[in-house]
Amino acid sequence: MENIMELFLYVSSILLVYDFDRCNGLRRDWQWQMGSATIFCAWINLILFLRKLGIFGVYTILFFRILERFLVYIWLFAVFILSFSIAFYALLRNQLAFSSLGEAFMKTSVMMIGELDFGTVFDNRFSEDIPLPIENQVPYVELTYLFWIVFLLVMCIILVNMMIAMAVDDMNEVQRDIEFRRLMMTSKFCLSMEGFLPEYLLRRSIKNEITWKRKKFLYGKLRPDPELLQRILSLDESSNPKKRDSKENEFIHIQEMLKEINSRLKLVTEK
């Protein structure tokens, strides 16, 4: 997906900056439209890139996982929205918001998130204008009220809360495996970047030995060694059996996680 989006960005950027009307230097209508799509895709591509980086990657992967789950169930929302939009189009087609099937579909979709605009639909019929404009009339008041109440119950309460519950359930499920996914993406990214580097740079980046230098004096005293301080502080913890057992359990847990990551990476490389 990232490769396709980057290819689109390259092509659309070239088409956007190219001057087809050399006389006046203005961009054509399709170039402006492509420019808006290019800017949008550029920011989305940045979000896809952030999946490989630290804490940003955790929430980015979580967002796309919830988006994938939503796209699976979007047909259910589409059926309900289409059914209500056709009903409102048949009852309120004299009003501007429901004047066509497309307008009714968009209006019903917006109403789903809470923008019902009840006063504009129903209260304009009480206007003192004589004769009452046709766009303010509600020909079938009782049936329209009935569909409006059913829409509130089904779309604004049941389906929206179901979508929120689905997102929360996905968060609990994805958080267990999200760190492994981020590490896997980071590993693939590093391996792909190493493929572009020349061999002599890769050799220079690999260190076969490490040279330790003696600590220099600072104002007549030795600089504090953080490793030595850590060892001294850990003596008290090692003397406590409860803390020692907890550290051993934590170390065993880390070893098990590393083994699991290695096994999964082997499966990924085999695929």
UniProtKB/TrEMBL annotation:
Domain Ion transport: 3-176
Biological processes, Gene Ontology terms: monoatomic ion transmembrane transport
Pfam family, one: Ion_trans
Entry's transmembrane regions: 30-50, 70-92, 145-168
Domain of life: Eukaryota
Alphabetical keyword list: ANK repeat, Ion channel, Ion transport, Membrane, Repeat, Transmembrane, Transmembrane helix, Transport
InterPro entries attached to this UniProt entry: Ion_trans_dom (IPR005821), TRP_cation_channel (IPR052076)
Membrane topology, as annotated: Multi-pass membrane protein
Localization: Membrane
Keyword Lyase annotated: no
GO terms under cellular component: membrane
Signal peptide: none
Official protein name in the record: Ion transport domain-containing protein
Protein species of origin: Cichlidogyrus casuarinus
Taxonomic lineage: Eukaryota, Metazoa, Spiralia, Lophotrochozoa, Platyhelminthes
